Amino acid sequence: MPKVNLYPLSFLALTALLSACGAAFQVGTEIQAGRYALMTGKSDVALGHFQRASELDPNYILNFSAFQEGVWTYVGKAYYDTGKFSEARQALERARSRYNDDQLAKIYLGLVLARDGDRERGLKELQGGMRGLHDWLEHIVYNTE
Known about the structure:
With 145 residues, this protein is mostly helical. The chain contains 6 helices and 2 strands; from the N terminus they run H-H-E-E-H-H-H-H. It has a two-stranded antiparallel sheet with strand order 1-2. The longest helix has 33 residues, at 7-39.
């Protein structure tokens, strides 16, 4: 049986793993920088960070905070804060289509729709988001005792 040198294969596997970890780290870094900018009133700066994160991983979901949010929710919130409601709506609808449990996407989409005159659908989104947050809080209360 011929000898197989596993070093090149191991090196390629390790390189692929580190590359994936590096990309995930970069996305997380962009999200955190954007969150900080958003909380300090720098919505335009936040938008840039969130857009870079969405380009790196359009399916990214932040799941270490109190609420799970997708990257498109952050893009939508930043657009909303900058008064770009049409762009906010597009990003938030994308967020809703990618991750149904993103309650804040529903709430912000409801706000955008209501501002845009679609009060019936806006109310439906707001109610769905609020119901989801309520259910999440109920889960925490009853499963941590």
